[in-house]
Amino acid sequence: MALLSVEKITAGFGGFRALDDVDLKVGQGELVGLIGTNGAGKSTLFSVATGYIPASSGRVHFAGQDITGLAVHHRVRRGLARTFQVPREFSNLTVFDNLMTAAPEQEGEKLSALVFSRGKIRQEEERLTAKVCDVMDFLNLRGVEGELAGKLSGGQKKLLELGRLLMLEPKCIMLDEPFAGVNPVLIEQLCERVIELNQRGIAVLIIEHNLAELARIVPRLYAMDRGRVIAHGSPDAVLADPAVREAYMGGVI
Amino acid sequence: MEGYLIAIFISILIYLLLAGGLALQYGFTGLVNFGHVGFFAIGSYTSALLALKGVPIPISLAAATALAALSAYPLGMIALRLGGDYLAIVTLGFSEAVRMMLQTEEWLTRGMHGLPGIPRLFAGWVEPQKTDLLILILLVVVCVGVFFLIHHIIKSPFGRVIEAIRDNEVAVRALGKNPAQFKTRSLMLGAGIAGLAGGLQAHYLTFISPEQYVPLITFYIWIALVLGGVGSLRGVVMGTVLLVGFLEGSRFIRDVIGGVSEVQMASLRIWVIGVALICVILYRPQGLFGSSPKRSR
Amino acid sequence: MTQPMNFSRRGFLVSGTALAALGAFSGSAFSQSEKVFRLGALNSITGIGGPYGPYMLEAIKIAVAEVNDAGGAAGRKFQLFAEDDQTKPEAAVLAVKKLIEINKVEAVVGIWPSSVGLATMPITNEANLITMNTCGAPEMLTENKKGLAWMFQASNAIFGSAFAEVARQRGFKRPAVMAFNNSTFVGQANHFKESWEAKGGKVSAFVIYEPNQSSYRTELSRVLATKPDVISLSAYRPDATIILKEWCQSGQDCKFIMPGWTANEDLVKALGKEATEGIISISNVAASQSPAYKRFAAAFKKVANREPDIFAAQSYDMVITLALAIEATGASADVLAINGKIPSITSGNGQAVTSFTEGRDALRNGKPVNYNGASSRLDFGKHGETVPDFGVFDIQDGNLVLKETIPGHTPA
Amino acid sequence: MDWLSVANAAINGIVIGMLLALPALAITLVFGIARFPNAATGDYMTLGAYTTVASQAFLGGSVVTSVFGAMSVTALVSLFFYFWVFRALAERSQVARLIASIGVAFAVRSTITFFAGQDQHVVDVPLVRAWNFGGIRLLPTDLYILTTALTALVIVFCIMHLTPTGRRMRAIADNAELAAASGIRSKRVMIFLWSLTGAFCGLGGALLGIKAVVVPELGWELLMPMFAGVILGGIGSPVGAVLGIVTFSIAQEVASLFAGPPYKIVFAFVILLCVLLLRPQGMFGRPMAAR
Lengths: 253, 297, 412, 291
Hints:
Chain A: InterPro entries: AAA+_ATPase, ABC_AA/LPS_Transport, ABC_transporter-like_ATP-bd, ABC_transporter-like_CS, BCA_ABC_TP_C, P-loop_NTPase. The complex is a heterotetramer of chains A (about 250), B (about 300), C (about 400) and D (about 290). With about 250 residues, chain A is α/β, with parallel strands linked by helices. Chain A has two domains: about 1-90 and about 170-250, Rossmann fold; about 90-150, no CATH class. Helices cover about 40% and strands about 25% of the residues of chain A. Chain A has helices spanning about 40-50, 70-75, 95-100, 110-115, 120-140, 155-165, 185-200, 210-215, 235-240, 240-245; strands spanning about 1-15, 15-25, 30-35, 55-60, 65, 80, 170-175, 205, 220-225, 230-235. In chain A, the strands form two sheets. In chain A, strands 6-7-8-3-9-10 form a six-stranded mixed beta sheet, sandwiched between helices. In chain A, strands 2-1-4-5 form a four-stranded antiparallel beta sheet, with helices on one face. In chain A, β7 (about 170-175), α7 (about 185-200) and β8 (about 205) form a beta-alpha-beta unit. The longest helix of chain A has 22 residues, at about 120-140. Chain A is globular and about 60 Å long. The longest helix of chain B has 27 residues, at about 130-155. Chain B is built from twelve helices and no strands. Chain B is globular and about 60 Å long. Chain B is about 75% helix and about 0% strand. Chain C is an alpha/beta fold and about 400 residues long. Chain C is built from 15 helices and 14 strands. Chain C has helices spanning about 1-30, 55-70, 90-100, 115-125, 140-145, 155-170, 185-200, 215-225, 235-250, 265-270, 275, 290-305, 310-330, 335-345, 355-365, and strands at about 35-45, 75-85, 105-110, 130-135, 150, 175-180, 205-210, 230-235, 255-260, 280-285, 350-355, 370, 390-395, 400-405. In chain C, α2 (about 55-70) packs across α12, α6 crosses α7 (about 185-200) and α13 (about 310-330) packs parallel to α15 (about 355-365). Classes of the chains: A alpha/beta (about 250), B mainly alpha (about 300), C alpha/beta (about 400), D mainly alpha (about 290). Chains in contact: A-B, A-D, B-C, B-D, C-D. At the B-C interface, α1, α6, α11 and α12 of B face α1, α2, β2, α3 and α4 of C.
């Protein structure tokens, strides 16, 4: 039984069909890649799966439940989390606060608690601080903990976004081009972390343009073109698929 | 002399409360509220009407705060569904709707005739000349309290989330939090503070009428925020002092320089505000007294 | 939190000191002479009062000059301090505090809207200041608890019933009412309706409109649809201009009764003779006949290059009345004593006078006087209200022509 | 309420709506291209009205030449503020530009009142009687205004669809990033945009001055209904702005027959809210995709 399964999804705006009858499955603890040219519908698929864009038909199932009609935040609370193509850091907050904010279901987010259970909040903050430190150690963000997130480099922002997801303790993470605009050293580091997370049992779905890097780490791959899934299977099989070669500029990969 | 200074400070402090509420909404949550004066009006009329019915002033002030905050709830629900761009026009429309209601529902508000004879704060406690001083002291206490509260809120986990919403709402949703919930609360908090300011003003002026609650008041508060700097409480305080100080201080300019007619002076005053606003935004985006926003821990 | 509060405290101190310095400056500059009466003018220079306030201030300046040129009242010269209330109560409160605290004025004249009158009354009462205004709200009378406020404009109630009286005398059968939505005009409209219906008539339409619109055609059509033979139009000049323009274009026949401060030469200038022909304009008095008015109008024209409106005339009278009261009480009298003299120098069987010098000379000869002003005979009721005679004018070929004078009376 | 008064109210709404369509179009174009609600729009109109009065009084020109004069003056002022203020704020937040435009509004209006005072002025045009068609009244003046507004709108739509600059303008309004990527030079477009919107505000103000009276708050007071109309039509959509403001004006006028004049604004506002809740992008706006 798949953890995330997208079934016969169609979506579009205006007269334009961004997704056309798309099926996609990510199993428990699996590491899956998603490739395609610009405008193939990859990011739109992410947005439909996570609830940012409504599907005009089709269903989304997660952990055995139909989540098609759920709001974004409800899906996240069930363990389905994503990053964005362009990093969406909280630019005027420090790296530390970015991570602290990400922790789910905090007592201190309730206004009444600010008055009535201040002790509880203090304990909670201490517990979360420890967790944030773990995450920062894991992602090597210790040195920049007090920096404003807006001042980080592109690669560090991607790490930070990954860190925020980790604070959520998700079951499945969807990474939208995590390596784009990141220097090679950091890519290496990011790759390792993603693999390590996957080994801890978190399912991962990655959109990536860097096919070489992707083929190296994922055992299974989907390819999309013009809103449809045109191939899926092992990286070698997908990359050899004529339809995929055709979509990628007449076979030059 | 002292009496006049007290009056100016009272007026500064009332604006300061309004600015504090708006700072919470815009400066820290990113809500573009252009109907702040509507909450101010609701507070004024609630407290005044209750007090005229014989309700003790502390209770009527509490009611004013509560009702202003509650009135923000449905507004938030509607406006937040529509998304950021629309909040400005929806809130502006709301404040005009409130004013029209105050003008029209004569059975309740006496319409354009206004409400005279509102019980004054501390009336009968001391000799009449001293009540203003007591009101000033009360306002200072209230302001310090409210700003302490705002400070406390923005340093809390709740504050972290609203600032995150200001910076990137989409990402907050990606963290499993419902921004609408936080935004509604921030809107209500700010509205409640404005309502309290309204109640205090009513019991200070002892006369209120719908003409006092025009959108210009909202714009003045925005100007104060932008002049001082949005992202910090220090900027908010300084911006308000500067604006009200200028509006009032410009009376003296004419006494001193002369040669400018009253009509021209009024035009000049607005002109200076307009040009100052442009220049601050162009050349000092963080405001005259603001530093770039940063959370300290 | 310590940070922001420190700063705000410093801000308070800095601005406070600056203001104190300025206050000391303006105070010291003017206080050499003891024989001065410090007079505050609180006018609506900007805001809705913008078309009237600046001219009221001009009128006050003319009167002040007249008194000072004659050597002052009981030897005391007027020293004028002018402030703009922006036609807003909360701005007025600060302005009046400044006049009291910094300029140490002993009387405030020229208050125009009722909202400002009502908002400043508690403050002026507390400071024992004489105030003279043109406010028409009935609450002014009840709030005038110390008897220090003097209403130079007839109250809405008196105005409204005078309108109804004129409508009846002219033989109209189906009057309609249109009014600008503010306390003065809504009050007038209500009293028109009441006093018309009290004598068994019916009002064909009753419309209160919102100001600041670019067209009032829908409101006007609603009134015209009931085919009234006369419309009681309580309006200011900008909205009256639009409404009359639209009425004229509609081609429907009907007359208008309007307050004199709107239906005057300026309105004719804005609209032309055709649209204003036959408008019935009601003012406090047969103003143009009074010598006080003639003298004032001549002086006013020199400065402002136009006829004074009724508010300007009232503002002029405020200063002259005050000057005569000071003259009657003597140089060393305090404010309350001066206030006490106001009724006796404006009514009673004293010698009728129409200017300050005339009144002063009579008073110096020990004769009682009765000042008949540029705006009305100025007889004050027991709450400080004027109950003037009304002059009924027709606009004919662009000129105001006096048709009759009717006595005003307070409705029961 | 009989149908005659409803019809007359609707006609009045159409005239006011068409008149306001000119500045509303300016608002929506600025919103689409420069990306902010320009609060100075109202005071550009006021400037247009005052310029018409002034050129009539001092230069003694006819109404038509005065109106053209007003259009050029507002276009120049609009360009001036583009070069001084809005160009420099292109990279800043929407709210920054909005607040700056409030500053511009204050500066323009106070400059006018400094020289012209607070009192009202009128544009000198002869009064003409209405034509009466069985109770439905049509004003010749209104027809002139309607024709002028329509002509101006047709011209601008032609410009936007037929000239290269106009096409560039629409491309930027559609998608600024894409337009920049495909090498559209936006400076010329911006100059064109600001002079066009300035001229339109000036024309709208002048026409309003002819229809009503010229007071300092003339344009400022109309900001709310104009923004509401633009939103109703869908922000950034030129056709939407015109239809939106006309619909809004008709709704306001007809509403005042039923709800009473003071609630006119409230009622029109409720309509706006309902439309937005059902169709958040406005009547003619396109839904925006999040990326």
